[in-house]
Amino acid sequence: MNFEQQxxxxxxxxxEEHTSGRHLLQALEEDVFARTEIAPPQxxxxxxxxxxxxxxxxxxxxxxxxxxYAQAYNTLPCQYSELGELIAIDGSLIDAVLSMYWADYRDGxxxxxxxxxxxxxxxxxxxxxxxxxxxxxxxxxTKILSRGQTGIMDRGYQCHKRFDCWQKEGxxxxxxxxxNTTKTTIRxxxxxxxxxVFYDEIVFLGTPNVNQTEEEVRLIxxxxxxxxxxxxxxxxxxxAEQIAMIYKLRWExxxxxxxxxxxxxxxxxxxxxEYGLMxxxxxxxxxxxxxxxxxxxxxxxxxxxxxxxxxxxxIRNEIHALDLSKSTAQKIxxxxxxxxxxx
Length: 343
Prior knowledge:
Elements (H helix, E strand, L loop, with lengths): L2 H13 L5 H10 L1 H7 L7 H10 L2 H18 L10 E10 L8 E3 L2 E11 L4 E9 L7 H5 L5 E4 L6 H9 L3 E5 L6 E6 L8 E9 L11 E8 L2 E7 L6 H9 L2 H14 L9 H26 L5 H32 L7
Parallel strand pairs: 1-5, 5-6
Antiparallel strand pairs: 1-3, 2-3, 3-4, 6-10, 7-8, 8-9, 9-10
Helix pairs in contact: 1-10, 2-3, 5-10
């Protein structure tokens, strides 16, 4: 099995919503389309498939993902360009099995964790990292964000020391924080009377000589449906309402995770090693990017399960039509050279 065949098999696994490696291998052996168009010509044994998944292809898959992201970035329309490059950042736990000893979480439970950057402007995943379930999420922000980008994060990422660090690195953040966080006001910005925003100040966050920020932080608070949100940022160039809007856009990474897990079955494990699980996650992202580009170029739409189902049907219809064509051609050829054929 070469890399191209490995990639086709992994994309097929996600696209067809298989739920296990055994389910996939059975399809590669018994399904006519999968056997002729996806599997290697000589077929593939269970041991060979799992050995390849856990030891081969990671570097190539990372390259394919980067190239597809660049293609999608240049193909898809850019939203919210006036707000800059927005990257939602979040982690997601993957249920592991006890034999995955490296996936520490707690006694009697094993979990791995995906750390993802999601490009809000183009609605596509941009970067992925991977760790055991108990590893902290905050250190991955520096790896995910590039200079000039704005990371959008929930309360779990609040860290005053890292707020300073990100600002020194030339990176921006919009991060929800705890409402009772200690703050020292430097100056107050005017708040519009009819706005959802009721607080907009430049502050130092944290307790002096303990965990206070060295850099000034802009803190805004707004209220939606009776619920208050306190958001820290170093975006001083935007209105308070735009900051509130940016934080609301963080919800898109939650929607991505839900769609990705539900419709591409990326958390149904076909690997047990760290290497193999990263192979599976990258294959899932590649499948999503391929579907995104397909939906845009053919329908000018964002990803939807309806279009994915249409794609599955179209592929099978093409194969069926090709089989019929071959069958007809063979019948004509047989009749032409068969002296006993009826005329």
